[in-house]
Specification:
The structure is a homodimer. By secondary structure, the first copy, chain A, is of the alpha/beta class. Chain A is built from nine helices and twelve strands. In chain A, helix 6 packs across helix 7. At the A-B interface, strand 1, strand 2 and helix 8 of A face strand 1, strand 2 and helix 8 of B. Strand 2 of chain A pairs antiparallel with strand 2 of chain B.
């Protein structure tokens, strides 16, 4: 049977993947959730029609959102992830031995449950004794903490629907307040090719809240255009000057010390959004 | 009218672009040529069903294939491009004032003619007094020269059809012989995500012919997965140690000194193909 899943990446650009089997489809309280078995990427989590993660390429996003801030911080102990219900970011965070507790805060329990059922390679660490899973509103969670976290990661869907409140200055200020005096914040912030104005706006806000603000890149083949960026805000440590990076035992497929440094080399077309 | 162009990027993965107008379609002696006006990428050149270049993102590929070797060489005067009939690589090469002559060798005169007619922004430099356009077989051209070029670039289609002979060890040896004693060779060599074994094979061959062999990356949003690589062979100069990079007046949108250095930071999953 010629079954294809098509994502509308922009209104004029689609990506289509051949599907072996539709494993799960539901409408949760917050979004449409689909779990597909694809030929090219293996199992794929789709939220509101947008590809979130796949078995084949999930390592890129999860390694980069985690290891860049965690190797920038000299001794991260308390980490929070807002969103990221699939658990891939928690898996990478817990590779850092210094981390005592990593808290996942996802508003949609069904994403966590579907990931646990269908994506064991990704959700594997959610039952770790150092992992805490909280099903609640990430905005309220962050507001209710102060001076507590070494690193906070916003591992969200696109800035529409349930995630829209995660991309406003007030939220960045709440994150600043929830971080310790040398804390680091990082968020996924879309495609430099397709979302330049959005990135410019996020960067401007983060820069007004944090003394150090940087954007870094990676390549996720299932995201529009491949090129993807994260925005990082830091109270003290400059991620471009991270030292003592040692990934021994991490089994990284994308991240390395050299990749860490290179990720901050923005092409001029992307850099201009930060001016 | 809902007109879409679909490229089969792999047998299980398609990319589709909304088309405003089909400006030109023909079957040349060597390949199917199409020139489309797309909503997302502007005008787009398609050869044998594969997107070659678009107005919106052509700068990435053309800047990276050109400036990495040309800023590695301290004084490039004679440059040859095998393939690259759209002229974008020649345009970037001629930004280097040291270059006295840049020779384009494309087997298909119709690609050059279609580019001149429909892609003036890309083909603009083909009539420059320092540019020479030769319609002939690149393999024979390279064989007939010895100790003549500072840089040779293989700006080809995918390694199927007319381009297949451009990805064999005998051809790399011919290029070595056609280069001066400190010459540099570079070729587009596909996607690290989708063509790892191919890259491994090319790299192994280039490494046996050239004392220095390196792979570098860029991100072309219209190519499968976005992440794309080039393989470079050099007789003397290490591209990672390039010095005195000055892009003033080049109007680069992707290339910069920082991007040059960062391009060689291969993620571990890609690096393993070079072992």
């Amino acid at each position: 049977m010629g079954l294809w899943f098509t994502e509308e990446q922009t209104k004029d650009l689609n990506i289509s993947c051949r599907v072996k089997e539709t494993l799960h489809v539901e409408k949760s309280e917050y979004q449409d959730i689909a779990l597909l078995e694809t030929n090219e990427f293996g199992r794929m989590l789709v939220l509101d029609g947008a590809i979130q993660t796949t078995i084949k390429d999930e390592f890129v996003y999860h390694e980069m959102i985690s290891h860049i801030p965690l190797f920038t911080h000299p001794n991260p102990k308390r980490v929070a992830v807002i969103g990221g219900g699939d658990g891939g970011t928690i898996r990478e965070i817990l590779k850092h031995k210094s981390v005592e507790k990593a808290t996942l805060v996802d508003i949609d329990k069904r994403v966590v449950e579907v990931a646990k059922q269908y994506l064991p390679e990704i959700s594997v660490a959610l039952n770790d004794s150092r992992a805490e899973v909280r099903i609640e509103d990430g905005i309220e969670f962050v507001k209710s903490h102060r001076d507590e976290f070494d690193v906070i990661m916003v591992d969200s869907t696109d800035p529409v629907g349930p995630a829209v409140g995660l991309f406003v200055k007030e939220f960045y200020q709440s994150i600043y307040d929830a971080l310790k005096e040398d804390g680091i914040f990082v968020a996924q912030t879309e495609s430099p090719f397709y979302n330049g104005k959005f990135i410019a706006s996020v960067y401007r806000d983060v820069r007004t809240v944090f003394p150090i603000a940087k954007v870094f890149l990676c390549n996720v083949p299932t995201y529009p255009g491949g090129l993807w960026c994260f925005t990082l805000g830091s109270k003290k440590y400059d991620p471009e000057k991270a030292q003592g990076i040692d990934t021994k035992g991490f089994d990284c497929k994308y991240y390395s010390e050299k990749v860490h440094k290179a990720a901050f080399a923005l092409p001029p077309f992307a850099k201009k959004y930060l001016e």
